[in-house]
Design goal:
heterodimer, A: alpha+beta, Uridine Diphospho-n-acetylenolpyruvylglucosamine Reductase, domain 3, Enolase-like, domain 1, 4-stranded antiparallel β-sheet, 12 helices, B: alpha+beta, Ubiquitin-like (UB roll), DNA polymerase, domain 1, 2 domains, 5 helices, 5 strands, 35% helix, globular
Chain lengths: 285, 156
């Protein structure tokens, strides 16, 4: 039994913001695949839920001023079936493929996955590597911040009281860019990732211009970019010697928590280096 | 706080007042006596509570009854035509894909929703559609045999 709460279903964004203004303790309900589980287990006891599934402002995937705008209510099956995500942002497409199962992908939303701020969220490292921004709407209008600033810790975000996430904006990548998402889990079937890695390469064919972005999930309190390793690789011929150093460099400054549920810190650190190295070998071959 | 909902369940119109914290699964089982959908894990992991909502398979333990307002819901009870089993149910029986039966309503409905989307699914599509359904008895092979049999029966 889920503890009692009030339920509101606003018809549009302004109604939703008004709900949040009147009930600052209310929690947003989108797909509910994480929220309702937490509520049933008593980990969250919101006095009210604001169901935003009626908000047109949070739907649709479209290009806008050099960004792909992905509505917060876009579900993971939509991400998986989107041609533009598959063709232009393969790293996110691959993450959608391994998220949950069909029924969960049909309900779970990108916005919910971002707002939950789980360190190992499936969309976390891909969005970090894609340098995505989130657009928040609140009582004072809208603001945009990088997703890596939005996440502040496990389950903690920069969302201010009365704000809601409207959409995720992913900057367009130069043609020919490539990306790979890799994860490890305890079983090969439906399971949360023990850790995950997203690698994106811009201008893969042009060593001088090449930009490599590496992001890891479930290695730190939030998904993180690995800037030191990126700098080591930038604009250089990536050869055997560099590859052999990369593995250690990737996780050098990371300290996965010892109480991790799904893998030991040592395993995570070794595997992070391994996944990133293999992904890069594949991306640059 | 209670909310009035109006849904179509197995072709019948239902109007009811529900508490906000009632899941669709609880509503179907406790209010409508449709006990085919089961609560296995209550976390969305096992698939035993799957019903079809507006054409899509849904974990009814992770959906509030009030969220289903205005929806068309299909449960296992609505599949058979009187004493005549639905072809998917018949295929499950003939393939021996039913043992303890706890997962069966969810599996059958996931297959129905799949075949409604893709009448001739690939092996990959079948695996994807059933990936979130746990069965501790059959080892899944007979389930796949049942699905293939249902597909060819529909093709005849």
């Amino acid at each position: 039994m889920i503890p009692r709460f009030e339920y509101h279903r606003p018809k549009d964004l302004s109604e939703a913001l008004e709900c949040l203004r009147q009930m600052p303790q209310a929690v947003i309900l989108a797909g509910g695949t994480d929220l309702l589980v937490k509520m049933r287990r008593g980990k969250l006891r919101p006095p009210a839920l604001v169901d935003i599934k009626g908000l047109q402002a949070c739907r649709d995937i479209c290009w806008e001023n050099g960004h792909l705008s992905v509505g917060a209510l876009t579900d993971f099956q939509q991400l998986l079936e989107s041609d533009v995500i598959r063709d232009r942002f393969a790293v996110l497409h691959q993450a959608a493929r391994v998220m949950g199962c069909y029924e969960i992908r049909r309900r779970a939303t990108l916005g919910g996955n971002v707002v939950n701020a789980s360190p190992g969220a499936e969309s976390g490292s891909p969005l970090a590597a894609l340098e995505a921004r989130v657009e928040l709407a609140g009582p004072d209008g809208r603001r945009r911040i990088p997703v890596t600033e939005f996440w502040q810790g496990p389950g903690r975000t920069a969302l201010a009281p009365g704000e809601l996430l409207v959409r995720v904006l992913i900057p367009e990548l130069p043609p020919g860019s490539r990306g790979i998402y890799r994860r490890r889990s305890r079983v090969r079937g439906m399971d949360l990732a023990s850790m995950n890695a997203a690698v994106v390469v811009l201008y893969p064919e042009d060593t001088g211009r090449r930009e490599i972005r590496i992001a890891l999930g479930a290695m730190a309190p939030t998904p993180v970019r690995i800037i030191a390793a990126e700098r080591m690789l930038a604009g250089r011929e990536v050869s055997g010697e560099l590859f052999s150093r990369l593995g250690k460099e990737v996780s050098r400054d990371l300290h996965p928590r010892a109480t991790s549920l799904r893998a030991s810190p040592d395993y995570k650190k070794q595997m992070a280096g391994e996944l990133v190295t293999r992904a890069l070998e594949e991306l640059l071959s | 706080m209670e909310h009035q909902i109006h849904i179509i369940v197995n072709g019948e119109s239902v109007t009811a007042r529900v508490a906000a914290n009632r899941t669709l699964l609880e509503f179907l089982r406790d209010e409508l006596d449709l006990t085919g959908a089961k609560e296995g894990c209550g976390d969305g992991e096992c698939g035993a509570c799957t019903v079809i909502v507006d054409g899509q398979p849904v974990r009814s333990c992770l959906m509030l009854a009030v969220e289903a307002d205005g929806a068309v819901v299909e449960t296992i009870e609505g599949l058979a035509d009187g004493a005549r089993l639905h072809p998917i149910q018949q295929a499950f029986v003939e393939a021996g894909a039913v043992q303890c039966g706890f997962c069966t309503p969810g599996l059958v409905l996931a297959v129905k929703a799949l075949l409604d989307r893709y009448p001739r699914p690939t092996e990959e599509q079948i695996k994807e559609a059933l990936g979130g359904h746990l069965c501790r008895c059959t080892g899944y092979e007979t389930v796949f045999r049942a699905v293939r049999a249902a597909i060819s029966a529909a093709g005849r």
